[in-house]
Write a structure and sequence with these properties.
Pfam families: LRR_9. By secondary structure, this protein is of the alpha/beta class. It has one domain: Leucine-rich repeat, LRR (right-handed beta-alpha superhelix), CATH 3.80.10. The protein is built from 3 helices and 5 strands. A 5-stranded mixed beta sheet has the order 1-2-3-4-5, covered by helices on one side.
């Protein structure tokens, strides 16, 4: 197993049967473009540069829904888009839960998000309100 810092994901298109992909610590942002990987069920994008700026995270999640239709496990820990009170004092558990509803609204087939299993209640809440969940607090 080799670990390298990725600057281009172009070569992944030759691995159409890939099932797991770990892209942690690669400075990847919301402009991440993956080739179609129909068998990919696990994707970790921890500690990259993914954020909720100008709806670009929505575009990224829509892209993932299209190109990795079998995705069941996604981890975005350590990104600005993933509010974590352990990393940022201004964030709390409510921020993290709103983030989960939004991601689950966009990727309803997920079974795990970050380190937690997706619950039936979360899935129902994501269907009802997920589109309106943005992690924004008044100043």
């Amino acid at each position: 197993v080799a670990f390298v810092v990725c600057r281009s994901l172009e070569g992944l298109k030759t691995f159409s049967y890939l099932e797991e992909l770990i892209l942690d610590n690669n400075l990847l942002g919301n402009d991440l473009l993956l080739p179609r990987l129909p068998h990919l069920h696990t994707l970790t994008l921890n500690k990259n540069q993914i954020s909720f700026q100008r709806n670009t995270c929505k575009i990224l999640l829509d892209h993932l829904a299209e190109v990795v239709p079998s995705l069941q496990y996604l981890s975005l820990l350590g990104n600005i888009a993933c509010p974590n009170e352990l990393v940022c004092k201004e964030k709390d558990e409510d921020d993290y839960q709103r983030y989960r509803y939004f991601v689950l609204h966009k990727l309803p087939n997920l079974k795990f998000l970050d380190t937690r299993k997706v619950t039936r209640r979360e899935r129902e809440e994501a269907l009802i309100r997920g589109a309106f969940m943005k992690v924004v607090k008044p100043k």
